[in-house]
Design goal:
69% of the residues lie in helices and 0% in strands. With 314 residues, the chain is mainly α. It has a domain of 140 residues: Alpha Horseshoe (Serine Threonine Protein Phosphatase 5, Tetratricopeptide repeat). Helix 4 packs antiparallel against helix 5. The longest helix is centred in the middle third of the chain and has 48 residues.
Length: 314
């Protein structure tokens, strides 16, 4: 029994030696590709080395490095996080946390390019924590301290940008609300006007829309009647400059378009509408005077000719 156990131990030791040799072989080959900047092939070989020895720090660490060089930042961060959980050596922990911070910062940059600001800030916060843990394990590393300060400043800048974006969104929402309100006002201003006289139907219909007002009693309600009081003057003219608030010349509470004597001068609007205006009267008078003057001139000319025919020739 003792001999069998000894043989098994020897076989196991030989197997371990062979596995360790394969691990070192894959790492060396991976390093060659890494220095040639063929990072995809390097990652493949490092992964083979890690498969040969799952506890190999160098293989797992190099897998993370090769992924980082390919800008596969999320995958690189995953590799470093796994190492952090299995390491106790401060030097190695500092290295892992440093590279983890770099990977998280790389993902942050990608998110910024995609305009995903909130997620970018979250990853920057994670990177800041990784750098802090690296400094705790290796307080003398100046590069880590620089990255920590840079990331802290970056977070402040991103948060200010986030605040500006929020303010811009709020302003855009306010503008949209104002536009909606203005559109609603426009709709309200564009009230129904069946007869197109400028006076809204709601005004012409009166207090009881189910029984709309018919001022002249012609069977056509005012809101469909272009001359509601039948005085010969269109409602659109009598309504004035603000048809939504129709003109009431005599201030008797009855708007002109419903008032048959809108200026309360005792002369019905229908008669005043047929009479000529003062300006027209003056123009007519001027024309008459001019015609009369021309007639008088012609009479004089005829008389002068008549006199000349009867004069004696001595």
């Amino acid at each position: 029994m003792k001999r069998i156990l000894t043989i098994l131990l020897i076989i196991n030791a030989l197997a371990n030696i062979a596995s360790a040799q394969d691990e070192r072989k894959f790492i060396r080959e991976g390093n060659d590709y890494y220095y040639k900047e063929q990072y995809d092939k390097a990652e493949e070989l490092y992964q083979k080395a890690a498969n040969e020895n799952s506890s190999s720090y160098e293989a797992a660490f190099n897998v993370g490095n090769a992924r980082y060089r390919q800008e596969k930042y999320a995958d690189a961060a995953s590799a470093y996080k796994s190492l952090v959980k299995s390491q106790t050596d401060p030097k190695k922990l500092a290295e892992c946390y440093y590279n983890l911070g770099n990977s998280q910062l790389g993902s942050c940059t990608q998110l910024l390019e995609q305009k995903k600001l909130d997620q970018a800030i979250s990853l920057a916060d994670s990177a800041l924590l990784s750098y802090k843990n690296s400094i705790l394990n290796d307080p003398q590393n100046q590069q880590t301290k620089y990255n920590y300060l840079y990331t802290k400043k970056l977070i402040d800048t991103l948060k200010k940008l986030q605040q500006q974006q929020q303010q811009q969104q709020d302003q855009n929402q306010d503008q949209e609300q104002n536009q909606d309100q203005n559109q609603e006002k426009d709709k309200q201003n564009q009230e129904a006007d069946a007869d197109g006289d400028g006076i809204p139907d709601r005004v012409e219909q009166g207090d009881n829309p189910s029984q709309p007002r018919d001022t002249d009693g012609d069977g056509t309600p005012d809101y469909k009647d272009n001359d509601s009081d039948n005085d010969g003057i269109p409602d659109s003219k009598e309504a004035g400059n603000d048809p939504k608030n129709p003109k009431d010349t005599d201030g008797d509470g009855l708007p002109d378009y419903r008032d048959t004597d809108s200026n309360n001068n005792g002369i019905p609007d229908s008669e005043e509408a047929r009479s000529i205006s003062q300006e027209d009267a003056e123009r007519i008078l001027e024309a008459i005077n001019k015609a009369d003057a021309e007639t008088q001139q012609k009479v004089k000319e005829v008389e002068n000719k008549s006199k000349s025919k009867h004069e004696k020739q001595w």
